[in-house]
UniProtKB/TrEMBL annotation, chains A, B, C, D:
Keyword Metal-binding: no
Name of the protein this chain belongs to: Chorismate synthase
Cofactor binding annotation: Reduced FMN (FMNH(2)).
Protein family membership: Belongs to the chorismate synthase family.
Cofactor field: FMNH2
Example of a GO MF term: FMN binding
């Protein structure tokens, strides 16, 4: 029960540490006969990888995924899809300074407490590098559900918010700037803010919004495995996520029922969609939308006190990579996890 | 995969419709030898039940739980604990008016779409009455983990917020008022607000905050089953929940890393706790705290348009129970789900 | 993980001790819209219950099942089906003599070792009475798969074997005699043998054979969850089972490939069926058949040495019920478990 | 639910086709801090691999396992252990003759029916080559449980049986002959028999017996996940297995209770052990022993009729590898699956 699998019928299991030989995973339950577009998978991988622009981390990760099974003559066979992503940059010496030290707000301390010791290189298993495997699984899930459109984008960086309703945004602009914000003016301000944060050697958080369109009615299970409960878990499982809300979200808690209820059109659609496309845990065919809050990553280039494994407080300065704002890179990860959740419920729904 | 189970090692499965003969469930995996305090279970049940005061619904639900197995001479035996909660009030005629009608923002429509038909009486399986079974399972989980203290309370009702940090609150006051807000002044304002909402025949949402203390270091699994991801899923599985945030939450997304990082004390505790007691998905021994947003319930006493199963829009007025604000009643449910999640991870952690 | 659930998509969880207030279970995942024949369920229950004839145990168990949820207007709703079977005969004093004693070849000793103590009345959770809940779940699974025919029968009692190939048997005769052997001559000899065993105060084992017809091609998953592996597990989970073989079974291990291979007909059927209807773990449309070996039950009416919980060997004589041969009563249980396994794979197969 | 995982807490997921780029798997749940003996793992791998002697298949499979994660400085870290076993011999043309043909008693036909098409090279996913990954997982499970001794051996080949009770055998002789039969005389006869079968271009089945010693009391869960039920499923999931029996097995079904009951010694051990070390599904500390029946493998070097995918019957002669008796090679696989099952229950038992 070490928690490295997600899903029931579209089941993704991942392995790999930041500086081990390779990351990878197994997708079990992908139906047979899907003609895979491998290039589209590489596009998703490249969206996630660091070093894409001046505002994000400079580490070079080629992130070439190698499929080892489950695909024959370009199509999925229905058997498990095994894949690896070699770690080409495994210089362990970079991390010797944290071998015996617990960085503030990192997982170093709890890993040592839970497991007795840890692979300290680059954060080991707790590194966000693990999400590369999720992006592979999500890219395949997207191809399994071609009619469903999943669009995530950055809606805030630190104190800078894009408050425009998603209906007024042009999703085709998301990839046109390094911040992945579809509103160009906001994007420019966010980018400048991040540059400033970078100069300070600091980091900043933000929010990713996600909109899912063309979802059939009926996905999601009542009671414990509600569609939004699984989406929430999937998002909260991404590194640095602190909050999740869907539909009216926290603001909805301030509303009255007479304001919040979504009245029906004769065709079963609703005039408003404060419900966020989900009623009683089950998709109702309207757009699903949600927001995911990311804290600033803990690795900063300033000097901060750390704890060593003998109980001494010692100052430490961040070394190596500096990623002042991971939120743009989180966009494809949010989409990937959404796709995995939908693929799973799509298969479950076939059993009714 | 109908989604009626929660947990891996402390596994809770529930059954039952609002107006069926009985609700109930099975708790599988509760260790043997726990001397159960049945009265404490009844106290939790009575905290959840409607009709406790003028501001909540008036329906009488005795909610007497009958244990059928897994307990011998007052102690758990390690075998599954089966229990039922008879529905003593099954007047079906109350609900004939919704037989062919889909109420706005209820699960009526999606149930019919997903399952082909539904038990329309009182919302059937989608009714929050199902949470009575969760409260039973949570009450036993609490007794399994006597050292861990779980305190939930109402921190906002509609637009009225209690912003006092939890450290300054006296949790012993939570049960002293019908709103379950530990700050008496705020409680009085909230209560008056709810009375006003009741008069309007309307409903209102709110926020439940929860604080968990004395959690050992090490609970939670890395990657997909992070402690906060499971807590989030558990909370989002409660009826009417629209959002979840823990530690710094959505506000944390506006902060800088240099502000957000929690610096260590020599004993491994931290000077601040913006992390909310969880690092990398694993408890670090500090207080765990989170907030859960509830939308206003959909059943209002005003007239609203509904959809019938022939595609006609027809006005409908809520009948029967009126629960202007379910948020106080959600407090024991939030605690129950938190206890279930912790019990599960507590058992998982024993396998390392 | 206390092991009280079976199945993934058609998931059965049971609870209950022999002498607790009630047994019962939850069936989660049964599709909606199945018109249930409750009388047919009662027939299965009555096939399992003791006291049906002179050769089996005399205890009266009415075994009336009460459905509490998941059924509305006679049809399954797709929500979990909760049910209980009250224990009407709970005279605890009958079992005080085994409170501190471990009967040979019973689970008394291991339960005390594993759980620290046990509900000693009537074997508690280890009693075969638990299988009543399985029969309920199996009866519903049978109704879910009306085209599939499952016929089990007794093919040996102690040293008396019915060696006639199943193709030459008339399954309609199975219920015509208390031994549940479709060959009347063999049945008579077996019955006499059991009467003799009863007089000796002894017990005897036997074999149940099962034939499943009209199974669609494609049920079963490759690798770990092969159809016959799940059937094997399901059968081995029935009390007193010591062995399972399918198709050619143990005899097949003595054969040559040239003899054992099943040659095809042009329509994909095979001329022989030593494979037992399963190739590579997946049903091939031919008849599935298997054999299940039951040891003699441990409770005999003779005096045998037992162990008490202080380490003393003390003679003990069986009291109360005497069931000289449970094998006929195991017939409906074998069918029930087969039906549950098939229902689960049937649903899984819909996801391809 | 494509069935490529085994276990709950020690969870093994495998991937890979016979002639894909690589096989591999993920072991999730292995506790941290186990100093791995990689050489011992290679020894297990070499025991499984073909081409070890004249009586088995001649294919060269180096089967070098590469560990990619979960191990740091020689010890398990508690994070998932990912590994691959490259397929160095991927000559696809060898198998073009079976592209459109279904070989008798192979999985070709059912795979095409279930999945729509298949990777036909070398049997694809249905090849026993998949068991290489199981041997890796089993070898690590063995190291996790150093005190438990698992010894499997060949107890029959075709009609030649070794009937000596295991207590009288010298397990250290198992590896001293290519048949893996600890009795040298029987081994010689079996070997000669297999040579003869090879000359005939035929194959033959056999039985593997397995003895597990030093198992602590308490492993196994009551009801559905009985220890022997999981062992049975694990064994039946191995290619070509047709039957499983433990303890007294099928012979036990012919016995009387008075003969079969195992009387206690004062220390809780039993004078006899017809129960096979398991009571009520839970280990009682006595030796666990069971037998696994293997049919002859279907690939023979004689000409047999096959079916093509257009419904034509066409004669086909086996090509390439000829493995007249896989039973000796199955010995390490039986041990591996037993180790995996025990590791899983060992971890589960820690949660009580």
């Amino acid at each position: 029960m070490a928690g490295n699998s997600y899903g029931t019928l579209y089941k993704v299991t991942t392995f790999g540490e930041s500086h081990g030989e390779a990351l990878g995973g197994i997708i079990d339950g992908c139906p047979s006969g899907i003609q895979l577009d491998l290039e589209a998978i590489e596009v998703e991988m490249s969206r996630r990888k660091p070093g894409q622009s001046a505002i994000v981390t400079q580490r070079k990760e080629p992130d070439a995924v190698q499929f080892l099974s489950g695909i024959f003559e370009g199509k999925t066979t229905g058997t498990p899809i095994g894949f690896i992503i070699p770690n080409t940059n495994q210089k362990s010496d970079d991390y010797s300074h944290i071998k015996d030290n617990y960085r503030p707000s990192h997982a170093d301390y709890v890993y040592d407490q839970k497991y007795g010791f840890r692979d300290y290189r680059g954060g080991g298993r707790s590194s966000a590098r693990e999400t590369a495997s999720r992006v592979v699984a999500g890219a395949i899930a997207k191809q399994m559900l071609p009619e469903i459109k999943i669009n995530a984008y950055v809606s805030s960086v630190g104190p800078i918010h894009l408050d425009t309703p998603y209906q007024e945004l042009d999703f085709s602009k998301i990839e046109s700037n390094p911040v992945r914000c579809p509103d160009e003016k906001s994007a420019a301000i966010m980018e400048e803010y991040i540059r400033d944060i970078r100069k300070q050697g600091d980091t900043v958080g933000g929010v990713v919004s996600c909109v899912i369109q063309n979802v059939p009615v009926g996905l999601g299970e009542p009671v414990f495995d509600k569609l939004h409960a699984e989406l929430g878990k999937a998002m909260l499982s991404i590194n640095a996520v602190k909050g999740f809300e869907y539909g009216s979200g926290f603001l909805g808690s301030e509303m009255k029922g007479s304001e919040h209820n979504d009245l029906y059109n004769p065709d079963g659609t609703t005039k408003t969609n404060l419900s966020g496309g989900i009623q009683g845990g089950i998709s109702n065919g309207m757009d699903i939308y949600f927001r995911v809050a990311f804290k600033p990553v803990a690795t900063i280039m300033q000097t901060q006190d750390s704890l060593d494994n003998k109980g001494n407080i010692t100052p430490m300065t961040g070394k190596g990579r500096h990623d002042p704002c991971v939120v743009p890179r989180a966009v494809p990860i949010v989409e990937a996890m959404a796709a995995i959740v939908l693929a799973d419920f799509y298969l479950i729904n076939k059993t009714y």
